[in-house]
Each structure stands twice: as structure tokens, then as C-alpha cells.
Model the fold of this input.
Amino acid sequence: MIDFRYHLVSIVAVFLALAVGIVLGSTEFQPNALSILQSTSNSVKSQLSAASAQRDAYAAQASGADAFLQSSEAVLLGQGHLLEGQKVVLVTEPGAPPAIIDGVKRAAAAAGATVTGQVALTPAFNDLSGATQSRLSSVNGSIANADGTTLTPGADPQTTYQQQAAQLIASAIVAKPDTQAQPGGGPAPLSQASALTLLNAYAQAGFLTLSGTPTDRAGLVVIIAPGSVPATGATDPGNEVLVAIAQQFAAASAATVAAGSTATSGQQGSAISVLRSSSASSQLSTVDNADTTQGQITVMQAFAVLLAGGKPSSYGISGAAAVGPDPVPTPSGTASPTTQPTTTGNGRPPVKKK
Done:
């Protein structure tokens, strides 16, 4: 990454070059003034070369570390046993980086989990204008009436309809392990057909798109944040909606992790920083460098911590509680191979002598 210092030195070099040109075209300047300018220009060029070399060295170092982690990913994720048998569903915000989506899928597979599918929210879902809100409310009401669902009152009046939509979407794509119908005649889980009908209603209204088979209920949810910081910062409608839906998916799932990118890590108003400072931080873990192999491994390890009864935490490189879980989670004890007793020639086990 080219830092501010690199840009500053480059700009200074340009202006000094212009100054030298002016000097060369003028006979008014004394020779010693020209010599000073040339010496200063050479010094700045030297600093620029040093900064460029340092940048290249850091880039090579980061590339080497990422290559090492890629080759060690399977080992760090328990050779497919860390999340063995678990299902993961992706919920992506508008502008979610493809690198994070692909990397999380790869890490999930390395950890032994299955990605059921992806629910990609569209910009319309984050639109808080009256017309869009009215349309979303209508879809929510229609689905709730058909399924007999009681919609939860919104914690924030501005994002009530998004929160209720997340409640309904979660009922179609998420299920905690061994979820049963509620006692006393509560609603049973949606059938696959009803779940698909529900998701298609939002898709047809322009609020989301689908890929894979997200109706194959997952216990784990990865919410992938946008790859840029909104101009309006923390109060951006997208950030407000994200907090509301994150809480809803966290409540419906066995574990939820929000993943962001290094490009927005630590920046004021980024989705991950907003989540970390909100009440949602007590319900889900966050990873701010999920566009790297290290961050993608951390997402899976964060799931393992939560499934083992650990508390949600923030992981990453800026404003996080830790780089990753400590101690590093390991797969729960796998069944040891059964030892068959040695038999004699007649097929019977030998009799131990006293």
C-alpha cells in the first residue's frame, strides 16, 4: 500500500523539479542557489527511492505471510474438524468484497463446514425513504400473515421494517441445532417450499438476491460488510440497518460473525467499527481483516469459540480486542479408532493367562 509519506515525497520532488527548471531557464540566479536546489532535489529523490524500497519490502513480507497461511490453513483449521458437520450461510451487504466472500467459503470448507448459500442484500434494503419503507412493510406483513408469524417490535423506529424483514429471512435460512416446534402449540419451522417462497417474495420486490441453497438451514451466519466507508459515516442508513439485522441474525443462529476488510479497518464510520460500538457487540464477534487469509481463518476460529460457549469478541488489526482467539481453538475430541481384539486361529479372542 502506498502511504502518505510516499505521496508527500513525490509531490515535493515534482515541485523541486519545477523549481530547478525555472532556475536553469534564468540567468538571474547565482550559481550557488542553483547548486543548493540541485542538492535538495537529489536528497528528496533519494528519500523517495528509500520509501519506495521500504514499501516494496513490506508488500513482499505481507505476501509471503499470506502465502504461508494459505499453505497452513487446513492445519490451523483442524484438518476439516474444527467446524465439522456445521452449516454456514452468508448474508452480504451491498458492496461486500468478492475476495472476502470467496475466502470465507474456502476457509469454511477447510474447517469442515458446508456453505449452504448466500443472501445478498441490495441497496434498496438499506433505503429508509418513505416509498421503500412502505414497500418493505407490505412484504413483511404479507409473509407474516401467511406464515402466522408475530413480528418483533423494532428496537429503532427508523429500522423497524428492516429488523422485521431480517426476522423473517432468518426463519427461512437459519436454525439453531435441534430446533423443535415451540411448546404449547408454537409455530413449527418453515418447510423448504415455504422458506423459498418467503425469500423469493423479497427477491421479487428487489430487496435481495439468492445463490446456492440458503433454505438448507445453517446454524452459523457470516455477515459480510461493505468494502468502503460511507460518506455519512456512522449515521449512514446502511450502518443503522446493519446493526438492526445483525442482532436479529445473532439471536436466531447458534453463532454469528461479521467480517470486514483491511481497507476500512479502524476507520471512523466503517461498518465493523459501528458494530463494535453498538449493543450488537455483545451478541456477535467481528473480524476486520477478512480479506486476508489470516482474517478468514479467524472467522472460523471465532465460530469455534462461540460454539464452545465463549463470549463474542472483536478480532483483527485495528481497534480489536485481539488479533485472533487466544488460546487458539482446536477441534473437539474426535472418536479414537476402535481396537479390534486379536483372535486365535479359531476366530476366538485369546484367553489371558493369570
